[in-house]
Amino acid sequence: MMKWVMVIMLTAAVISAVVTGRMAEVSESFLSECNSAVELTISLAGIICLWSGVMQVAQKSGITEKLATLFSPILGKLFKGLKKGGKAMQYITLNLTANILGLGNASTPFGIAAMQAIEAEEQSSDPENASHNMILLTVMNTASLQLIPTTVAALRLQAGSENPMEILPCVWVVSICALTAALIGARLFCSLWKRG
Question: What percent of the chain has pLDDT over 70?
């Protein structure tokens, strides 16, 4: 679906440029922004690699098991039916920790591993549909509570910001509101779906 959105946007830009006679500006913009995209990707790669490595060290050293146990009272109430120290809880903890640190893309592998672990642990009789725990993880991953918006700070620094972390209070308020709304919505729709 997303590829069609991109195709439509590019086509609309080209048609608009032809109609308004600004094809030279659009061509120049395409070329310059391609360079900017590559530079941005390389600058973000370092941060993502660093934190992905830190998360792997945490996983191999047993820190994630301790974190899973520490967060189990809260996560146990949210993710019902999962083992407290099990693989699913460990990967959920890693995913949420990566999101709390504002790592965005670095949390994706942990989210995928968590989904697989949830599926293996629940052994659902309906493998075609996502379970409530899978839906909840997806919602929490998307809304993601961020205490340290690392990726956003790196983007702001790249754009020349003198104080890239000045957005912290706004990020905290928005993150808490988004996560609260997402959790309420997920619970509400899951209970409605169960009744229907």
Answer: 91
65-88: string of b/e by CB count within 10 Å (b at 16+)?
bebbeebbeebeebbeebeeebbb
CB-side exposure of 66: number of CA atoms within 13 Å? 6
Distance in Å from the first CA to the final CA of the chain: 28
* Angle subtended at Cα 78 by Cα 73 and Cα 79, rounded to the nearest 5 degrees: 95
Yes or no: say if 150 and 168 are a contact pair by the CB < 8 Å rule: no
Closest CA to 136 of 88, 73, 83, 66: 88
- C-beta separation of 107 from 98 below 8 A: yes
Nearest to 68 by CA among 83, 50, 51: 83
At residue 117, what is the residue type?
A
DSSP 46-68: HHHHHHHHHHHHHHHTTHHHHHH
- 99-120 burial code (b ≥16 CB/10 A, e <16): bbbbbbebbebbbebbbebbbe
Alpha-carbon distance 109 to 114, whole Å?
8
Residue of 103, 80, 41 lying closest to 191 (CA atoms)? 80
Q: CA 3 to CA 70: how far, in whole Å?
A: 41
Beta strands in 90-190 (DSSP E): none
**Once rounded to an integer, what is the mean pLDDT over residues 107-128?**
82
pLDDT band with cut points at 50, 70 and 90 for residue 146: confident
